[in-house]
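In the previous chapter we treated chains in isolation. Here, by contrast, the input contains two separate entities that must be folded as one system, with a combined length of 381 residues.
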Amino acid sequence: MSHYAYFVAGWLILIGAFGIMRSKNLIQSVVCLAVAQSGTYVLLLSIGYQWGGAPPLFGEPATKPNLHVVDPLVQAMTLTDIVVSATVTSMLLAIAIQIHKRHGTINPDELNAIRG
Amino acid sequence: MTRTVRYVVFGLGATGIGLLGVFAILKIPAFGASSHPYRDASIPAAVKHATSNVISSINFDQRGLDTLGEESIFLASVLVISVILRPAGHETERRELSEGRPLDSTVLGGLVFLPIVLIIGLDVITHGHLTPGGGFQGGVILGTGIHLLYVAGTYRMFEKVRPVRPFEWTEAIAAGAFACLGISGVLVGASFLANVVPQGVFGDLFSAGTVPLLNGVVGVEVASGVVVLISKFLEQALTVRSDSGNPQGNGHTSRETKTPDGQHP
């Protein structure tokens, strides 16, 4: 099946969203978001894949530059994606700490009071 | 919204997105095909600037502006976390901590692996334009590797070895240096973040022009940023305590309004 990798990516994004939806713990929600984001890594890398392609790294005299490699552009985008994902995760965890301090709970179902 | 309603709403939305995704996936080019126009364009551009690692060439040379944005995102997130996690008015930092001693095997492991991890981090940064790796990856290795000292020692000892203030300065200076390297391209008459440094021989350590310089700057920034970031979380876990002993004195109200099953009233 030639589209298998794309379906894995879509499945990861949806199952991550499902986890966020049913989560009863903010830390778990953050981890589920990381799962959903990893779906985007799989999607990007599978778009750039080529059967039998080498990594896009060259060095003389071992490998002369050639075009029979996997797409480097999506790999560079995946790196950006991972950096953004890491910063988002760290910020959400910091917010979870503050929520626990102010409300005494990290269960999103119990966070129903609006407080200034 | 009860949990059942939430499940139904999610189910409808997920089914819709899932179906759209299936239709979209069936139409896109097959996995592993050989048509990659961006690859065909970016590899000659990387070779022209003597960069062995095409991914580094894209990140720091061909699309350097995007990476400036990326490291600004990182800088901003460290800033935001420093603001969110600062000790509030009702909190104080405990000065004395009752800490036990780590196991002898932990101390030995930490001290053996610390130099190894630091050397690997520096290696990943300095060879970012030749082999897999670069400033972001090596910076994370360096920034987290320093914390082996914390694992192998006590927090108070670690705080003396790693004062946060210089790392905050280093992070800001390194982030500015990236922009300055970009502006230097404008000053010599080329465009912003242009590769104006002599590019050397393909595959050499001193090749690829500005790519290793930007890699180094980003490495320093990410390493210092990670240290500042982890220090804020460690402070929260270890030293910051509320004065009243009760989270802001109103931590219980949300529990009182809770209805059975955790449903909203």
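The first helix of chain A runs from residue 4 to 22. Residues 16 and 32 of chain A are 5 Å apart (CA to CA). Compare these points with the single-chain example from earlier in the chapter.
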